[in-house]
Amino acid sequence: MSKKYKRQTPRQVSSLAPKVVEFNPDYSITKRDLRRIGLLAGTFFAILIVLAIFQNQFIGLFVK
């Protein structure tokens, strides 16, 4: 009488040492976004300083 199920042969593992995966994230997009945020913040800050210096002249133009 023949067997219904064949015996599975154990598989040979080629290497038992785990593969080393180096963590190397790419922050180029983040750097570009931070540079853009800094440029916008600096521009708005400079505009606020100019408006604060000339605030009396601007108020005189609109309120008569």
Structure report:
The chain has helices spanning 28-53, 55-62. The chain has 64 residues and is mainly α. The chain has a domain at 29-62. The longest helix has 26 residues, at 28-53. The protein is rod-shaped. The mean pLDDT is 85.
Key terms for this structure?
mainly alpha, 64 residues, 0% strand
Quick recap of the structure?
The chain has 64 residues and is an all-alpha fold.
Proportion of residues in extended strands: under 5%
Mean pLDDT: 85
Overall SS class: mainly alpha
The number of helical elements comes to 2
Helix coverage percent of residues? 40-55%
Assembly category: single chain
Low-confidence stretches: none
Largest sheet: none
Round the Cα radius of gyration to an integer and report it. Answer: 35 Å
**Shape label:** rod-shaped
Gap between N and C termini: 112 Å
- DSSP summary, beta strand count: 0
List the secondary-structure elements in sequence, H or E: HH
List the helices and strands and how they pair.
Layout: H1 28-53, H2 55-62
